[in-house]
Amino acid sequence: MSTELLAPLDLAFWHLESDAHPMHLGALAVFAPAPGVGPGRILELLGSRAAAIPRLRMSVRDVLLPVGGKAWTVDKDFDVHRHVERVVVADADFMAGATRLAGELMERPLGRGLPPWRMYLICGADGGPFAVLVKLHHALADGMRAVAIGAGIFDEIAAVTSARTAARGRTAVPPRSWLPDPREMAGMALGRIGEVGRALGVGASVVRAGRLDLWGPSALTAPSSGTRRLATADLDAGDLQRIRRAEGGTANDILLAVVAGALRRWMAERGESLPAADPRALVPVSRRRPGGAAASGNRLSAYLLGLPVTAADPRERLRAVRSAMDRNKAAGPLKGAGAVAVLADQLPPLAHRFGAPLAANAARLLFDVLVTSVPLPRSALSLGGCPLTALYPMAPLARGQSLAVALSTYGGRVHVGLVADGKALPDLDRLAAAVEDEFTELYALVTGTDRTPVS
């Protein structure tokens, strides 16, 4: 693995972090037990497979040039045992204990002197199912890249990776120079002119989209406490496709409408009045090209979407989401205030270093909740022969944000991971239940068929 500078957006995530606002994303993977496979074997596999992933051996170091920049370098003292740990939950309900513990572990910032990731093997006191919590700093990867990195722990991916490595041999990759070749300078200069023009357009959109009248019930506008709470929900992927075939649009449109309806339900249960204006969701969009080169850093833009919580009818909410997302897609991911990540990509390293304290407070002016979908491999996965049964993604909370919702589809289920400020949303489980209830009601309205919620 060569030494490389942090890309501008990665550098932004690195500088945006504070003790109360850790900028790592994660996932809670749940496995069924297999005969003869104990925690010791699983812990050994986690350690050996994580150590074999080159990206997980990289740490962040200061550089002289460019001023304010940082670089990924191989940690010569890398010890995987500093990153992989076993913890035991004694709760009779394993999933309840695992999600509670995962929330507590997500509170802890990742140490800056080491490669910025951790894995926790979460076991019950008496065997049975177990879980693996993976934490990756957002500077290390966006959602799609995190999946590519984290997938290396699974039996199926590890076998393929090992075979490819053996076929190639372990040839060293020479470090890339941080200074461009003189022949590249003219092309870079022209490229920068285009980037500056695009940055000015995005910057103007961001300014226009800023709000002084902040939305939301008290829970979503509460000051950050630095605590974290996790809750999960499960939806039937087959039912999701039945809704899509009946109503049109995309599966993501439907899930966004479900989140809007769940927020409406949750507010009603809390006795909150409906807001005068709909809350805004930031919906990340990957800028990675299918089949293209796998860039190591973040390649993100985003859409801003008003979640129609003020609409009473679930189908009306779905139509509103579809219409808004169609407009976003027609404009493209590089236009509009949601492309603030693209703006970050155009700033020099020194601007990120000194501008981070100001930018950290800007998220609250642009959006109220993050809603993101994380793609997973479609094939069945396992760890040490223990089948993966669920994977709940977890998105980071920006400063001033109290809730982030992440979704992934695996094994015929849509797994929803909700991350919240623990003090602002102590009733996060009620919101998770509202997600399942809203999905059930939408399915019944669309298909005319009642169904039992996923257990």
How would you sum up this structure, described in words?
The longest helix is centred in the middle third of the chain and has 25 residues, at 185-209. The model is unreliable at 170-209 and 290-295 (pLDDT under 50). The protein is globular, with a radius of gyration of 22 Å. By secondary structure, the chain is of the alpha+beta class. It folds into 2 domains: 4-168, Chloramphenicol acetyltransferase-like domain (Chloramphenicol Acetyltransferase, 2-Layer Sandwich); 185-375 and 396-447, Nonribosomal peptide synthetase, condensation domain (Chloramphenicol Acetyltransferase), CATH 3.30.559. Helix 1 crosses helix 12, helix 8 (237-247) crosses helix 14 (428-447) and helix 9 (251-270) crosses helix 10 (314-331). A hairpin with a 7-residue loop joins strand 3 (58-62) and strand 4 (70-74). Strands 5-6-7-2-13-12 form a 6-stranded mixed β-sheet, with helices on both faces. It has 14 helices and 15 strands. 39% of the residues lie in helices and 22% in strands. Residues 297-442 form the O-acyltransferase WSD1 C-terminal domain. One of its GO terms (molecular function) is diacylglycerol O-acyltransferase activity. Keywords: Acyltransferase, Glycerol metabolism, Lipid biosynthesis, Lipid metabolism, Transferase. Pathway: Glycerolipid metabolism; triacylglycerol biosynthesis; Lipid metabolism.
